[in-house]
Amino acid sequence: MTVRSAEILRPPFPIAPNPLAKNSREEQAPSFVAEFPSTQLLVRGTRRLGMGDAVSYGWLLGPALLLVYWSLGSATGFIDGRILPAPWVAVTTGVDLIEQGRLQQHLLVSLLRAAQGIAFGTVAGVLVALLSGLSLLGGYIFDGIIQVKRAVPALALIPFFILWFGIGEVMKVTVVTLGVFIPIYIHTHNALRSIDIKHVELAETMGIRYSQFIRHVVLPGALPGFLLGLRFGVMGAWLGLVVVEQFNTTSGIGYMINLARNYAQADVMLVGLVLYAVFGLLSDRLVRSIESRSLTWRRTLAQ
Amino acid sequence: MSAPVVRIRGLVRRFTLKGVLNGVDLDIAPGEFVALLGRSGSGKSTLLRAIADLDHEAQGSGEIYVPQRLSVVFQDARLLPWKRLLDNVIFGLEAPDARERGRRALEEVGLAGREQSWPYELSGGEQQRVALARSLVREPELLLADEPFGALDALTRIKMHALVQRLSAIHNPAVLLVTHDVDEAIKLADRIVVLDDGAIVADIAADLPEDPIAHLERTAEIRALLLGHLGVREAEAVD
Ligand SMILES: Nc1ncnc2c1ncn2[C@@H]1O[C@H](COP(=O)(O)OP(=O)(O)OP(=O)(O)O)[C@@H](O)[C@H]1O
Ligand SMILES: [Mg+2]
User: Fold this and answer.
1) Residues B86 and B92: beta-carbon distance below 8 Å
2) Does residue A60 form part of some domain?
3) Is residue B90 a contact partner of residue B101, using CB atoms and an 8 Å limit?
4) Which parts of chain A sit beneath pLDDT 70?
5) How many CB atoms lie within 10 A of CB A119?
6) What is the 3-state composition of chain B as percent helix, strand, coil, each rounded to the nearest 5?
7) Considering only Cβ atoms within 10 Å of each terminal Cβ, which end of chain A, N or C, has fewer?
């Protein structure tokens, strides 16, 4: 590795003026650096257990490999087109659907449902997690109920939701909202309950008001947990969408897939699946970039 | 003598399994630097936490009078990792000129220019200096410190001693310093108390004369006295 030699020379002999050095004494490189003997002797060869530096767009590698495998498989006939159409079929069918104006319309409806579900689910998840995470009584009231809900799959609830909310948008957005709410609640609640007691004690000795304690200690301390919950929550929104758009719908990507199934149009079904996948992946990336932006204070293995 | 800032009478503290403090009496005068020695497990931290009102899980009785303005320095720096240094220093400080005061406090501990660093960017000694700045920026009447230099190396410790001496001369809070280190106690404190078996068993003025010879003699004398109370014979301590 070429980087190594620079690293070897650095401590305790600065090679170049260090732009960050506050102290002017440190800014002049000592002249004996050039005479410094063979560097190899200094290498202990510590095995770095961290992961090195991140590559931008490195996260695309896995999906890209999958795409290559699929393309090669389809081109060579290894993957039967009747079982799984080729990737370019998805593209051409997608273009056709756009020209007919169907795709945009379904996509827009689905995106709107997802966005509403994510918004409501996040707000509700955080609020209930705060109520239940920050007070014993709140925990006794809410935590049990939510564990009960966790045990009941969304699919089983839909018939009841149809009874209660009808078959319109309210029912659908409710299902998506629940898919977001649960993971956000679970992770935020867990993060709130795991706030380091040392930080709580520190805040106690400062004699600060409870609201200040929440703002400066609890919320920032629970932020990593909340963001993890948000990642699961965004995925939950897409899953909820897949489920709910199979029922009594006349619009949305799920409806498009369902309709295509009735006419055995594998290519249209495929377009729907690809869209779910792409939006799932993109939204996860979005949350992760929010994560790395708002958690700069944290040093973890991946940095 | 002026009225004490800390007044403790008949302090009893016990945890579910065992009694730790049974009848501690202690007064600390304004600006007085008191070191608290005692064997490991003798209840030093318990006493300090009782004074700081952090011992929610202990049962007990007794009177504790402490001033409103009170700061605690722990063995670990306890910086909030999500706050930059300046924000850590002024955490909980409600004053219109808080930022300016925080900047000055960082300067006092030799960390001027590091206001915007994250805690993880600092060495252990530097973090502890930030913790010291955070405790002093509040101008406390009483500073409680539980082995604040326990995790530092010998050299850093010596520097911290000098820093603490300088800062306590400027801010002049009453100090209660818990330590394991007899020499640290003699060097820093005006008065040294020893905790054993749940009570204060020795209360010694660490009055060191100016004259170098007399200074050494008195140091040795106090040292022998303290080690005796701590159950260590001088010969053992010399190894
Ligand atoms: N939260 C607690 N629950 C139960 N027992 C405790 C608790 N905190 C302290 N103790 C017990 O009280 C006794 C005194 O503990 P304390 O921490 O005050 O000792 P210490 O003098 O500070 O010791 P060290 O010098 O090792 O820090 C110990 O025997 C300890 O086991
Ligand atoms: Mg202790």
Assistant:
1) no
2) no
3) yes
4) 1-45, 300-303
5) 14
6) 35, 25, 40
7) N
Note whether A25 and A151 are same-domain residues: no
**How wide is the angle at C-alpha A115 spanned by C-alphas A114 and A117, nearest 5°?**
65
Residue A223 belongs to domain spanning: 101-294
Q: Are strands B6-14 and B19-28 parallel, antiparallel or unpaired?
A: antiparallel
Structure confidence by residue, pLDDT tens digits, A45-103: 677 777 777 788 888 899 899 999 999 999 998 988 888 888 888 889 989 988 988 88
Please work out, in degrees rounded to the nearest 5, the angle formed at the alpha carbon of residue B143 by the alpha carbons of A198 and A206: 45
Helix (H, G, I), strand (E, B) or coil at B209: coil
Length of chain B: 239
Count Cβ atoms below 10 Å from residue B64 Cβ, excluding itself: 16
Q: Does B231 touch chain A if contact means CB atoms closer than 8 Å?
A: no
Question: Which ligand places an atom closest to the C-alpha of B17?
Answer: 1
State which residues have CB under 5 angstroms from ligand 2, the bound ion: B 45
Best to test chain A binding among B80, B93, B111, B130 (most A CBs inside 10 Å): B80
Which residue from A250, A285, A61 is spatially nearest to A167, judged by alpha carbons?
A250
In total, how many domains does chain A have? 2
What single-letter DSSP state applies at residue A29? P
In 3D, which of B202, B192, B206 has the Cα closest to residue B229?
B202
Q: Which two tokens stand for residue B112?
A: 């001027």
Residue A171's CB: how many other CB atoms inside 10 A? 19
The per-residue DSSP string of A192-219 comes to HHT--HHHHHHHHHHT--HHHHIIIIIH
Tell me: do A129 and A214 sit in the same domain.
yes
Q: Is the dihedral of CA A176, A179, A184, A189 positive or negative?
A: positive
Which chain B residue shows the shortest CA-CA distance from A197? B78
**ipTM, interface predicted TM-score of the complex:** 0.88
Domain coordinates in residue numbering, chain B: 30-39+56-69+141-154+173-239, 77-139
Residue A69 belongs to some domain of the structure? no
What pTM did the predictor assign?
0.79
